[in-house]
Amino acid sequence: ETGVTQTPRHLVMGMTNKKSLKCEQHLGHNAMYWYKQSAKKPLELMFVYSLEERVENNSVPSRFSPECPNSSHLFLHLHTLQPEDSALYLCASSQARATYNEQFFGPGTRLTVL
Amino acid sequence: AQSVAQPEDQVNVAEGNPLTVKCTYSVSGNPYLFWYVQYPNRGLQFLLKYITGDNLVKGSYGFEAEFNKSQTSFHLKKPSALVSDSALYFCAVRLVESGGSYIPTFGRGTSLIVHP
After folding, report:
1. DSSP label at B42?
2. For position A52, what pLDDT does the model report?
3. What are the E-state strand segments in B1-116?
4. How far apart are CA A71 and CA A69, in angstroms?
5. Residue B58: strand pairing partners
6. Which of A4, B11, B77, B81 is the most exposed, fewest CB within 10 Å of its CB?
7. Cβ separation of B100 and A33 shorter than 8 Å?
8. Between chains, do B102 and A50 touch, taking CB under 8 Å as contact?
9. With an 8 Å Cβ cutoff, are A107 and B108 in contact?
10. Mind giving me the DSSP string for A52-111?
11. B87: Cβ contacts below 8 Å, ≥ 6 apart
């Protein structure tokens, strides 16, 4: 496979469930990102992992927990979510050392919280 | 600090007509500028970027964008719109200078609708 892949593509979960989103990049990049995209709202950066650092958006609730075991894989662990967390969750990667590099996005996971 | 404004939530254009999607930016230095497109139920896809040099940048699918430093703008253009160009378009900016974050700032997005 090439590019950035995300699984699952669709997820429906109850508020008491625990689930994880997975992202994998096959581009040799050294930075990976999680974004939340809600209807009629701006793209929201949630977390970034690179060789040098982890960056968090302080407004992201603790019920979202990222994990980056290596430069090719990124997870978003979900627990006790709320209905307002329903959104499209996008993973992206880039080569972080040069700021002129564009990001490559996965197709997203459409999350519905009941 | 860096920011991006896309002043139009939606742009409507007839097929075959030229289209423009506007973007203005604010950075405390020189910018790298990007355009992405998002088709329904898909992730964002890179279209083109301005790094340096020629102010007119050509990208995928016949799109181009013009960097205007004095007006701090980077408008996306296409001479003849197609119905298949209908999508959500995002402008993004990064600061060039050393120490600038590799994390881009995105605009809110502009929905382009091309009517047959």
Report:
1. S
2. 67
3. 2-5, 10-14, 19-21, 24-27, 31-38, 44-50, 56-58, 64-68, 73-78, 87-95, 105-106, 110-115
4. 7
5. B64
6. B77
7. no
8. yes
9. no
10. S-EEE-TTS-TTEEEEEEETTEEEEEEES--GGG-EEEEEEEE-TTSTTPPPEE---EEE
11. B37, B38, B39, B40, B111, B112
Q: Which residue of chain B comes nearest to A33, CA vs CA? A: B103
DSSP assignment letter at B41: T
* Per-residue model confidence as pLDDT tens digits over A38-51: 987 889 999 999 87
Compute the average pLDDT of residues A76-94: 95
Average pLDDT over residues A71-75: 95
Give dist(CA A43, CA A40) in Å, integer: 9
Chain A nearest-CA residue for B100: A99
Q: What is the mean pLDDT of residues A97-108?
A: 88
Is residue B97 very low, low, confident or very high in pLDDT (cuts 50, 70, 90)? low
Nearest by CB: B108 against A6, A42, A108:
A42
